[in-house]
């Protein structure tokens, strides 16, 4: 097996070259030809990866976090080329979706060397200009995208705790945002939601922000996406909602509604959406599920 191992030194959490080199050594010891590729920017890394795919690599491995995984997904989605992950990022939410988040470099590399794969769904974002992007975990818009804005701008602390701090700071100025949401439900019926929302989130996976289970029952193999809508309420009531969000029990709160959908269109003025932790585009955006679009190495 020939493997292209992508390492992105430009990732926010810093260089992952150590994890990448260790993983490459383990894979080579298992008889897997492994070539490390790394660009000085996301665009350069993606171009190098695209070349590796065109030249016939048997698999792609990422040593990094959600942003680097997101980059790789764009090149391997729909190709049947399996994707492996060495979790080495800040949040590692997509690795969590695959049951890889807690694995060290050696165990993650062994998962790839075992050759066991499975197919999972991806979500596809379509912008107003017709361009598309895939994501694997969660798309956030509204309050949670503002949290991402703030967390990304923070130099301290590193790790998932910065999301917790960003949540508390953004909560101080929390207001409802006018939305229009068009849903195609799993049974093919349609639903139209208008009015103020605190946030509108679309999940292929369960977690974002380094493990927050915003879509607690999302299943990346069910051919559906989970849409979580949160309506405004008093600030103290929403503050009491936060512990439920961290436990994944917020579906029981009256202001929260969760829908299983084939597709959803989100519209709101001045709102930027994030997917897999990175900005994906300004609303309006349409998100639909692509069943079985990604093959992954799985424990």
TrEMBL record:
UniProt entry keywords in alphabetical sequence: ATP-binding, Kinase, Lipid biosynthesis, Lipid metabolism, Nucleotide-binding, Phospholipid biosynthesis, Phospholipid metabolism, Transferase
Domain spans labelled DAGKc: 1-129
Entry annotated with the keyword Kinase: yes
GO molecular function: kinase activity
Classification via PROSITE patterns: DAGK
Top-level lineage group: Bacteria
Listed InterPro entries: ATP-NAD_kinase_N, Diacylglycerol_kinase_cat_dom, Lipid_Phosphate_FormReg, NAD/diacylglycerol_kinase_sf, YegS/DAGK_C
Cofactor(s) it depends on: Mg(2+)
Family membership noted in the UniProt record: Belongs to the diacylglycerol/lipid kinase family.
Protein name: Diacylglycerol kinase
